[in-house]
Amino acid sequence: MEPIEKPLRIDTVWSSQAGRGAGEQYLQLPVRHHGDTAYAADYQGYVKAFAVDSGKAHWERQTGLQLATGAVYHNGRLYFGTRQGEVVALSAEDGRELWRSQLSSEVIARPAVAGETLVARTNDGKLFALEAAGGERRWVYDRSVPALTLRGNSAPIIVNDLVIAGFDNGRLTALVLNNGSVFWETAISHPAGKTELERMIDIDADPVVVDETVYAVTYQGRLAAVDIRSGRILWARDISSYTGMVADDYRVYLSDSEGQVLALNRRNGATLWRQDKLLRRSLTRPQLDGPYLVVADYDGYLHWLLRESGRL
To answer: Between vectors from CA 92 to CA 86 and to CA 93, what angle results, nearest 5°?
Structure first.
């Protein structure tokens, strides 16, 4: 990489071991926090709760589960998906298991929880709504999966009374939370090309909602802004991404499948800047950090970029 002009000083405050990570399982196991406590997990079932400011462990537990998602916190519970197709709830206080519910296939996208309802996406294209308190099933939505897809799923999101989910066929769907009926469905991208590889248009990046707009992006397809009330596409750009986006009041930021970081005008999709000095580094979804944007790469490096200009 080129030398960085006016480098930003980054200090390590503390470090702590939290299991074995994802290994080579191609899983997303992000650390999540609630208040001053964070929760980390590894693919072998180890879960740790620790203080955000010091890294001091509050509790540690070996669950014996093959975890496939990071923790989701809600009302004193931690929810996980597993390689065995389960959703499991643990107590956030001490890590003891509260319930588990068997679904149809592995759950590699983190569940979404709102009120008393949990929604989980399975790898075979289904959405399950469960009782958040006990895991009882409320409804199931089934979407067929193409013959060839990427290893990954976008996580469903719950906005007011809607569940919004992206699928491997490039379609974004809004379902009514109470009963699972389809409210609207929109094709973000359409398959093109002669081979199955060329026709892959998975929505693996989590949709992002700002105000009344949903932003969704496909692999080998498009990024689109969609009206949350009607499913109408407001604007679309030819962009390929499978890692994800983040947005502020003015811009949508994303890492594309080539390793570029882009900032787009949230209102019309125009490119505001493009950072191409991190090509082919398998970048993660960007995160906001004050005036900066932070991405990680396959080799363990963190990169800070200015949100205004994209400068490293």
So the answer is: 140
With a CB cutoff of 8 Å and minimum separation 6, the contacts of 280 are: 258, 259
Contact status, residue 172 vs residue 166, Cβ threshold 8 Å: yes
Considering the entire predicted model, what is its pTM?
0.93
Provide the pLDDT for residue 234. 98
250-302 confidence digits (pLDDT tens): 999 999 999 999 999 999 999 999 999 999 999 999 999 999 999 999 998 99
Q: Which residue has the tokens 């594309």?
A: 256
User: What distance in Å separates the CA atoms of residue 63 and residue 222, rounded to the nearest whole number?
Assistant: 40
CA 283 to chain centroid, in Å, comes to 14
Token digits of residue 81: 């998906």
- How would you label 277-296 residue by residue, b for 16+ Cβ within 10 Å and e otherwise? bbeebebbbbeeeeeebbbb
